[in-house]
């Protein structure tokens, strides 16, 4: 299989979409850089507005997150949310149920590299989001 070169987005090629309310709470914007369903990979930038977050979800073969700007949170099922800041990298192993999103007073932009199918669960409750410290 040949390698794929992804040039920087320009106004004429940007593929920014609003994150659907069936998988995100709050305003989230997705800029897909590369998606190959055959190989089961998606690479994209995700911008979360303050307090915006994903629903609970898993990735068949894991997910890598790299925070590019702002601050936020990531939480694995049955654990306390962990603070994220610019430069942090997170590896979510295959099948790990988790959520991630922006801090209450900040936006967050991360690069997401998702491997395999994503299985979406329920919305992160206000109580679960408030548990961050």
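Q: What amino acid sequence fits the structure above?
A:
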């Amino acid at each position: 299989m040949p390698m794929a070169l992804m040039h920087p987005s320009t106004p004429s090629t940007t593929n920014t979409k609003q994150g659907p309310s069936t998988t995100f709470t709050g305003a989230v914007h997705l800029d897909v850089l590369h998606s190959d369903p055959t190989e089961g990979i998606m690479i994209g930038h995700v911008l979360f507005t303050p307090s915006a977050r994903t629903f609970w979800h898993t990735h068949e073969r894991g997910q890598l997150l790299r925070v590019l700007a702002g601050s936020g949170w990531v939480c694995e099922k049955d654990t306390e949310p962990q603070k994220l800041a610019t430069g942090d990298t997170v590896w979510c192993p295959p099948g790990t149920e988790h959520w991630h999103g922006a801090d209450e007073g900040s936006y967050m932009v991360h690069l997401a590299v998702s491997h395999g199918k994503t299985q979406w669960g329920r919305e992160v409750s206000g109580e679960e989001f408030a548990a961050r410290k």
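Q: And what stands out in the fold?
A: The first helix runs from residue 126 to 130.
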